[in-house]
């Protein structure tokens, strides 16, 4: 069953106001006040800024095993899964930031090289225009005095 903002918070059972900061579980689709879900404002903002709010999984789903995808870490206690989940979210945020930085650097490098290539093409276009004019002058059949000295030696 998909929950909406008009559904009550599953933890406190209070109505969720449209102005409340809420978070939705990616597995069970339940909506929680961030305080009720023990999500700090910093983590909530990081998730929102990283555009990965849809990856959050509630404690109930984490401890019930819904969050696991067939991979069980040796020696992991059920109580450790919440910490593991929070650490994985932090890791995702850090990876997103690193990827964004890499994209910015690559884009800047690409823009610089593209600019250099555009300048080269423009200079080559100017040179082609000059050579085309010179060829047209030579083809016009001007009298021997107007031709370059190299052509007059025959």
Main traits of this protein?
about 150 residues, mainly alpha
Describe the structure.
With 154 residues, this protein is mainly alpha-helical. 50% of the residues lie in helices and 4% in strands. It has three helices and two strands; from the N terminus they run E-E-H-H-H. It has a two-stranded antiparallel ribbon with strand order 1-2. Strand 1 and strand 2 (31-33) form a beta hairpin. The longest helix has 62 residues, at 78-139. The termini are far apart. The relative contact order is 0.08. The model is unreliable at 67-83 (pLDDT under 50).
Give the helices and strands, then pairings.
Elements: E1 22-24, E2 31-33, H1 41-49, H2 59-64, H3 78-139
Antiparallel strand pairs: 1-2
Keywords: Metal-binding, Zinc, Zinc-finger
Pfam families: PHD
InterPro entries: Zinc_finger_PHD-type_CS, Znf_FYVE_PHD, Znf_PHD, Znf_PHD-finger, Znf_RING/FYVE/PHD
Number of domains: 1
* Fraction of residues in H or I helices: 40-55%
What is the N-to-C order of secondary-structure elements (H for helix, E for strand)? EEHHH
Count, helices: 3
| Unreliable segments of 5+ consecutive residues | 67-83
Strand residue content? under 5%
C-alpha-based Rg, rounded: 33 Å
InterPro entries: Zinc_finger_PHD-type_CS, Znf_FYVE_PHD, Znf_PHD, Znf_PHD-finger, Znf_RING/FYVE/PHD
GO molecular function: zinc ion binding
Pfam family, one: PHD
Keywords: Metal-binding, Zinc, Zinc-finger
Short description:
The protein has 3 helices and 2 strands; from the N terminus they run ββααα. By secondary structure, the protein is mostly helical.
């Amino acid at each position: 069953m998909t929950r909406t903002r008009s559904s009550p918070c599953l933890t406190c059972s209070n109505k969720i106001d449209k102005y409340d900061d809420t978070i939705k579980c990616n597995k069970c689709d339940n909506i929680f006040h961030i305080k009720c879900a023990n999500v700090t404002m910093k983590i909530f903002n990081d998730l929102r800024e990283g555009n990965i709010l849809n990856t959050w999984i509630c404690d109930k789903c984490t401890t019930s095993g819904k969050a696991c995808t067939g991979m069980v870490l040796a020696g992991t206690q059920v109580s450790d899964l919440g910490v593991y989940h929070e650490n994985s979210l932090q890791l995702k945020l850090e990876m997103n930031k690193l990827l964004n930085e890499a994209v910015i650097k690559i884009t800047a490098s690409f823009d610089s090289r593209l600019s250099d290539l555009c300048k080269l093409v423009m200079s080559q276009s100017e040179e082609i225009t000059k050579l085309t004019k010179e060829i047209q002058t030579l083809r016009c059949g001007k009298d021997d005095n107007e031709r370059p000295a190299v052509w007059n030696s025959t």
